[in-house]
Amino acid sequence: MTVTIVPAANTLDDWRSVYWGADFQLSRSAIESINRGVAAVQAIIDRNVAVYGINTGFGKLASVRIADVDLATLQRNLVLSHSVGVGELLEPNVVRLIAAIKVASLCQGASGARLSTIEMIVNVIAAGLIPAVPAQGSVGASGDLAPLAHFVCALMGEGEFLVDGKAVPAGKVLQDNGFEPLVLGAKEGLALLNGTQVSTGLALKGLFETERAFQSSLISGAMALDGFKGTRVPFDARIHALRPHAGQVDVAASLWTLMEGSEILASHKGQTRVQDPYSFRCMPQVLGSCLDSLRHAAGVLALEAKSVSDNPLIFDNGDVISGGNFHAEPTAFAADIIALATVEIGSISERRGT
User: Is 19 labeled as catalytic in the residue annotation?
Assistant: First the structure.
């Protein structure tokens, strides 16, 4: 299966597929918007006006003008100076997902990245080359500069790729696989470093893995109740119609269906207890709340993954506007919600066995 990345159009199912191993490609429909953004950057350079991120310094040096001859060096140095991550390397499936989400952001044309640069990301990943990205380096939720710098360094031939589980110098890996090192154009270093793709990729990993844990808890809960010779009466739809939280209603219906036709359930009909322990009875309420939370987080992350989280942003009329889309606060809240849901899924599962 191959996921096609279309500007502002990809779904959670697409990212789930990429995480679980699907390839991805860039839609040709993105070329016009990409080229329009590149042209806007070049027009700024040609007009000889100072615009942050294109021909100025960064941060406190934003008022320092950079000569046209030094623009490529500016972008290269920006990437190298931020490659200061530490810790264990991110798993290959997470890095692939990060790459896909970064392509989804860049292909909307608001970052000014060239088509050749975006295609290199796609082609390198398609060749099975995984940039070595340390897991630690982002400060709070204020963007993913350090880990994305390591990602870009590998494309530049300065960083490392993962080969058979080991970090190998990127220059040799690129050469062995027929790739020329990436030479950054104006604004491209900033466009590639700015963003929430690492935070979002990690949060999506948490979501997708928790989805499986949730499904397992639901099935094992029904099996445990059956083995306990309990009743499915607490899953009666009439109970949940009086407190109709969507997750609660859906979990109750699933549990009712899972126990449908059980020979064990039929064997003790009429011999049920007054009520079963609440780790069984309250599965709809507890797991349903987890489901509602996961659905909310999923909605946030689906929107974030198809958004542009760069700064500054380039618009169709040539305006370049600085803002704060690089801040990952929506993703951070979603990740915390997923963590809370994961704890509760584990908690009620553990209580059923004691």
Answer: no
